[in-house]
Write a structure and sequence with these properties.
By secondary structure, this protein is α/β, with parallel strands linked by helices. It folds into 2 domains: 41 residues, no CATH class; 238 residues, 3-Layer(aba) Sandwich (Aspartate Aminotransferase, domain 2). It is 38% helix and 19% strand. It has 13 helices and 17 strands. The strands form 4 sheets. Strands 4-12-11-10-7-5-6 form a 7-stranded mixed beta sheet, sandwiched between helices. A 4-stranded mixed beta sheet has the order 1-2-3-15. A 4-stranded antiparallel beta sheet has the order 13-14-17-16, covered by helices on one side. α3 runs antiparallel to α10. The radius of gyration is 21 Å and the shape is globular. It binds pyridoxal-5'-phosphate.
Length: 387
């Protein structure tokens, strides 16, 4: 069997594929068909916060699969109930209601529908360089023209303003605005941390003008930035919180958490066939338990500080800036990063881009110091060879 040939023959074509077949993963490591080992700083685009095939998640999936895999939300189910209870316990006060789905983009779609329904308004304000997903509604709020242009017209009344510029947001939000949606740290857009002043100011503007404040923590959630949710860094209280990626310990799941300013919802308003399925829910419960038991948000803060310190020591003239929060780190180069990502792979490190010029590192939060050192060394060699 040749997976590369078969996938190339049948893939839709929408993904830029790398020439690597991954067959197995454990913790922060993955292996290819020949048994070659890689430190995985792509971590499924930030899905594998717990590391690959975490034993707690594996056990929960096995146990739940033997009980029941599917159970629509019209019936009650203990795995789903346990997830709802745990997830809301970590959320800001007053976020007691949750809509469960299967992905980040769905979490954002639900947020937009509920915001429009709650406010009776249509307009959404998003940020330049923001990324919120690729279905038609969420895509309307995603900034990158390359993703949006071929599909226009998208949903109307969505506008983009510069990130971290409060006066521009202030000028854009009016009595027509249903919601403002922001990331706490922009991920796809280049690993840009929002300032406390900007994010708290945006929240205040929303409150004053009757708009809902939506935080998209699909990438920043569940320990990634050194706190359970990145909003904790700035003491934010969003009206809607979108999460997904690592919530299920690797399996597909999304969730839209609703605060008190979201109106009461009624049956038929929204729904999802797979949303709230017991298999994903059981994985989510196990993942949240493991995050807490292993104190992974704190570990992300410590390892992130260590990695950031090591990266700041690299004195390559190719580096423009190193920035990030916790284990969400961007290395902005003065040139395109694609060849460097390929070279890193040759050195046994998988990394992501964020735009054209930023190498993005999203290692599993369980990464060891030894593996961090391996990443830094690979980067050092890769950059040195290119100088
Ligand atoms: C990945 C991501 C999404 C989209 O998630 P999908 O599961 O790919 O639909 C939305 N928002 C942010 C911030 C993301 O990083």
């Amino acid at each position: 069997m040749n997976p590369i040939a078969i996938e190339n023959a049948h893939t839709s074509g929408v993904y830029a594929k790398r020439n690597l077949v991954i067959v197995r993963g454990k913790g922060a490591l993955v292996w290819d068909e020949q048994g070659r080992e890689y430190v995985d700083c792509a971590a499924g685009h930030g899905v594998a916060n717990l590391g690959h095939s975490h034993p707690k998640v594996v056990a929960a999936l096995r146990e739940q699969a033997e009980k029941i895999i599917t159970c629509p939300e019209m019936f009650y189910n203990p795995a789903r109930a346990a997830l709802l209870e745990k997830l809301t316990a970590f959320a800001p006060d007053g976020m007691e209601r949750v809509f469960l789905s299967n992905s980040g983009t769905e979490a954002v779609e639900a947020a937009f529908k509920f915001a429009r329904y709650s406010t009776g308004r249509t307009e959404i304000i998003a940020a330049m360089r923001g990324f919120h997903g690729r279905t038609m509604g969420a895509l309307s709020a995603t900034w990158n023209k390359k993703y949006r242009q071929p599909f226009q017209p998208l949903i109307p009344d969505v506008h983009h303003v510069p990130y971290n510029k409060l006066e521009r947001l202030d000028a854009a939000v009016s009595e027509k605005t249903a919601a403002v949606i922001l990331e706490v740290v922009q991920g796809e857009g280049g690993v840009n941390p929002g300032t406390a002043e900007y994010l708290r100011g945006a929240q205040e503007i929303c409150r004053q003008r009757g708009a809902l404040f939506i935080l998209d923590e699909v990438q920043t959630g569940f320990g990634r930035t050194g706190r359970m949710f990145a909003l904790e860094h700035h003491d934010l209280q969003p009206d809607i919180l979108c999460v997904a990626k690592s919530l299920g310990g690797g399996v597909p799941i999304g969730a839209t958490l609703l605060g008190e300013r979201v109106r009461e919802l009624h049956p038929g308003l929204h729904g999802s066939t797979f949303g709230g399925n017991p298999l994903s829910a059981a994985a989510g419960v196990a993942a949240l338990d493991a995050l807490v038991e292993e104190d992974l948000p704190r570990r992300a803060a410590e390892m992130g500080a260590y990695l950031m310190g090591e990266l700041h020591r690299l004195e390559s003239p190719l580096i423009r800036e190193v920035r990030g929060l916790g284990l969400m780190i961007g290395i902005e180069l003065k040139q395109k990063v694609a060849p460097y990502l390929a070279a890193l792979q040759e050195h046994g490190v998988l990394a992501l881009n964020a735009g054209m010029n930023v190498i993005r590192l999203l290692p599993p939060l369980v990464i060891t110091r030894e593996h961090v050192d391996r990443v830094v060394q690979a980067l050092e060699e890769t950059l040195r060879n290119a100088e």
